[in-house]
Recover the amino acids of this structure.
């Protein structure tokens, strides 16, 4: 991307609840096109038509941007969300997250991690050892922001995902977000499944395992979902970690390996 870049972010709500979000790092020339696409997305969401749409555009200093590579993508086929969650737990254990922390995160996401029993707008921050929740606001959570792909990396990713039958906005955006999360000092792993009722897939991401996707991590029709970031115990300044997730600009100019789906096996 040439010239100054801008962070463009969209947040949409319905009946006072978060409905949809999207963001990009963009040149000035692309802002109008991206803004129109974000508005269209908010008005055509599967959970309803947005009542409030907020667009935020801010210039990003070129010297602040870090570059990196997307993690490798693996897809494991599971029979249902029960098997999917067992498989996700196994990957998290391999990544250094305790059973206590895994069980607590999954229970919170399945029942609604916010105090009112709904999905959080952002991610939970969870101690990877003792399972304690650390985010300052348990209704809002922590939202990861200011990350995108370079044009070349985006085209390579689209072509690679098309070959696997996986090219959609859910996968591209989640992979990019997970990539930034994995660059964050002090984060051990991430667990995510969508709150969109018609989208049952989710993933685990860690430095050791890469981005591991499962087609089923929740039942169809369930509007509860979210993200959990597992933190190494006592090894990070929480305010610095949150600031990095929310404000550090990241552009990913390389993609990882994209592997064909294979059946999940306990031996993996």
């Amino acid at each position: 991307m040439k010239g100054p870049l801008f962070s463009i972010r969209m947040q949409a709500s319905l009946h006072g609840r978060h409905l949809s979000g999207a963001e990009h790092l963009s040149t000035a020339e692309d802002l109008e096109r991206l803004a129109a696409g974000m508005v269209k997305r908010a008005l055509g969401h599967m959970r309803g038509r947005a009542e409030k749409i907020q667009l935020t555009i801010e210039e990003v200093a070129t010297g602040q941007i870090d570059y990196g590579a997307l993690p490798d993508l693996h897809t494991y086929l599971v029979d249902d969300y029960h098997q999917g969650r067992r498989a996700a737990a196994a990957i998290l254990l391999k990544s250094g997250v305790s059973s206590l922390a895994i069980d607590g995160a999954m229970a919170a996401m399945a029942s609604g991690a916010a105090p009112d029993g709904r999905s959080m707008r952002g991610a939970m921050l969870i101690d990877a050892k003792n399972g304690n929740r650390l985010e300052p606001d348990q209704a809002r959570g922590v939202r990861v922001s200011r990350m995108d792909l370079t044009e070349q990396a985006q085209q390579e990713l689209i072509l690679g995902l098309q070959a696997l039958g996986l090219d959609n906005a859910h996968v591209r955006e989640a992979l990019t977000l997970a990539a930034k999360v994995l660059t964050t000092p002090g984060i051990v792993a991430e667990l995510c499944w969508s709150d969109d009722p018609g989208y049952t897939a989710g993933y685990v991401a860690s430095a050791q395992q890469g981005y591991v996707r499962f087609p089923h991590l929740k039942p169809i029709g369930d509007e509860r979902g979210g993200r959990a970031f597992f933190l190494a115990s006592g090894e990070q300044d929480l305010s610095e970690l949150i600031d990095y997730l929310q404000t550090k600009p990241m552009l990913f100019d390389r993609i990882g390996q994209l592997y064909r789906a294979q059946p999940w096996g306990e031996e993996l």
User: Anything to note?
Assistant: DSSP finds six helices and 13 strands in the chain. Residues 5-64 form one domain. The chain has two domains: 5-64, 68-263.
